[in-house]
Amino acid sequence: MRWASSPDTVLKPVETSKRRKIVAGIPGSTKSKAKRKLIVDGSCEGESPPQKKQRKKSPPPPPKKQRIRLEAADCSKRKSHFVLSTLIDGNAVDLGAQVSCRNNKNEVKTGIVKREGICCQCCNKSFSLSGFEIHAGSKRHMPAASIFLENGKSLSECCAQIMKDKRTRRRKKETAVVEEEEDANDLICSVCREVGDLLCCDRCPSSFHYSCVGLEELPEGDWYCPFCCCDICGRIEDDNGETESTAPLLSCHHCQLKFHDPCLKKKRSAKFRRKSVKGEWFCSTECGTVVSKLQQLVGKPVPLGKGSDLTWTLLRWTEDDSGSSEKLNAAIDILHDCFEPFKDDFSGTDIVEDLIYSKGSDLRRLNFVGFYTIVLQKGDEVACAGNVRILRGKMAELPLVGTRSQYRGKGMCRLLMNELEKQLKRFGVEKLVLPAAHSVLDMWRDTFGFSELTAEDRSSGGCRFLEFEGTVTCQKLLQ
In this protein, which residues make up the domain named PHD-type (predicted)? Predict the structure, then answer.
C-alpha cells in the first residue's frame, strides 16, 4: 500500500491593490470558493523576481505535519466496511430489518439484516449479499439491487441515498464558503505549490509566482493565467480581436483545456471537433475516444480469471447511478482508513471525497473532473481502491491507492495495479505517475517498477498532475 501526506501549511492573504491583486504568503488560515476547478501541478520551482515595491518577505512556513497513518494500533477495533455496516451506520437500514430476494420463478427468500451478513429465516444460516442472492436462486448477479427491504427499496437505492445525502451536506457547506469569501484567491502558486509574492489571475482564483509563468515584472492592465486562455493562441480574445462575449472559449470535457472555435478550425480540420450525444464537447478525437472507451467500462465487474472470486470494476459517481454507490462508499472508507483525512487549506474540502466525486473547481489545481475510481473486490467486499485519471500526452495519474486492513500483505494492491496497467495500455497510455511518500519509495521502485520523475521528464510531458507535500513523484513506462 502507498502512503502520502498532504499540505499542512496554513496561510492568509494580505491587502491587495486595486489594479492587481498580489498575495504575500504569511501564516494564518483561510477558506474559499468551493465551486472552483483545479488540477494540481508540480512542475517548476521558482521564486518571485524583484518587485517594483519592497514587500515584506514571507516568514518560513511552520513545520509540516505529516498526515500519514502507517499502522492501526488495534485492527480488531476497526469499523466494519461491509455494505450492510455502511447502510446501518448511515441510518439507511435498521439492524434486524427484514429483507427479501426473489428468484426467476417468483419464489422468495427472507432474511434478517445483521452487521456480518443476512441471516436466512428458512435455514438460520448467515450469508453475504451475493451468497444470499445465490441462496434465493436469483441469477441477476446484482445482490444489492436484488435484495429489498419491506418498504420496497433495494439496498442499492439505500446506498445511493447515503451518497446523495453526503453530496447535499457538502454543497450546503460549499455554498456558505462561497458567500463568505467570494473574491478570495489561492494562497499558493498553482505551478510550484509554494508560497510567496503571488500574481493573481483576474478571471479565476489561481495565483502564480512571476517566474513560474515567465514574467519578470508586474503586467499592466488585466492579466489572465494560462488556464483561462485559449490553448492555441494563448489569449482571451481570438485573432480577430473578438472578446469572449463574441468568441466564447470552449472547454474540452476530457482535458479541460480551453479553445477559441476559430483557433481550433485553423489548427485542425472540422472532423476533429465533435460532440457526444450528451452534449459534451471535445477538442479532438483523441479526447472523445478516451471518454467513450472509459464509459464502456464503467460499472461492469471483470473477473480476474475463470472461477475466481476476485473482480475489478471501474466506477464513476453520477447522481442517477445507484448501482455503484455501495462500492464508492467502501472506497471512501478504505482511503480514509489508509490516509489521515486531509483538507485543502484553500477550499476546506476533503481531498479523498473530492476525488471520488470527480469534483470540479474554478481553481485548476483542485479540478478533479476526469477522475475515476477503480476497485478490487473479493466476493462482496471491496478489498482495494484507487483514483485514476487519463491525461493528455498519453499519460495517466494515480494519486491515491489503498488496501483494506485485513487484506494487506496479500498481494491485493499488486493485482489491482496489474489490471490497471493492462487497461491503460489498451488506451494507448505510455506513462503512469503517482506521488509516493519517502518511507515507501523503495517499495514502489523495487516491487512495482517505478522510478523518480525527473525535471526533464516533467517539462517534456506537458501535463499537470496531483501531488502532495512530503511525497516524491514517480513514473512507470507502460509501453
Answer: 186-231
